[in-house]
Amino acid sequence: MARNFGPDVILDNPAFIHETALVYGKVHIGEGASLWPYVVIRSEMYEVRIGQRTNIQDFVMVHVGALTPTIIGDNCSITHHCTIHGAEIGDNCLIGINSTIMDGARIGVNSIVAGHSIVTENTIIPENSIVAGAPAKVIRTRDNRIANMMNAHFYYENALAYGRGDHRVATNPAYAAASAELYALLTAS
Question: CB within 10 Å: which end of the chain, N or C, has fewer?
């Protein structure tokens, strides 16, 4: 696993951490989480918490705010080139490519932040929202839980595969079976 970690980093059995990830300060990485190439996480004060099965994708920067920690829930996908700065993201959220979530902002559970959005300081996004723009605004309300959890599941399975040296998880029949099983479970409840 990664070597570029400070002494206060707690790893709670993550699925995969790429060797280029840089993680310093009081940071907790949850079970089954993954950090992809060139992720940077810093916490000189407060803390950063990454939830279970959450994926922090390539080139994401996570930092604490001047007055706020950064808390990212379970089953979240923080996609390529995002900046998460002193914000709170609820469970089962998808943060689109190149989005910025600023100090004190809170993203409600099961939400989607569209790519290139900027969620400004102290903005509160209700659960089950789709937000877009700069500054980001709610453009639709919909329960995104299943779609967002399935996306996080793909990254979880992909992380396990990368840990084994398999870079083509989508072609593996075991992945298809696990995905179908999870989808059936989620849609039955």
Answer: C
Three-class HEC string of 159-174: HHHHHHCCCCHHHCHH
The two three-digit tokens of residue 26, written as one number: 């009081």
The encoded tokens of residue 146 equal 């299943």
> Can you list the alpha helix ranges (DSSP code H) found in the chain?
145-164, 173-188
Residue 112 lies in a domain: yes
Three-state SS sequence of 90-103: CCCCEECCCCEECC
Question: What counts of helices (H) and strands (E) characterise the chain?
Answer: 2, 19
Q: How far apart are CA 138 and CA 132, in angstroms?
A: 7
The Cα–Cα gap between 66 and 177 comes to 45
pLDDT in tens, 90-127: 999 999 999 999 999 999 999 999 999 999 999 999 99
Q: Which two tokens stand for residue 137?
A: 């605004």
- Polymer length of the chain: 189
Q: Which domain holds residue 76?
A: 9-141
Number of domains in the chain: 1
CATH number at residue 56: 2.160.10.10
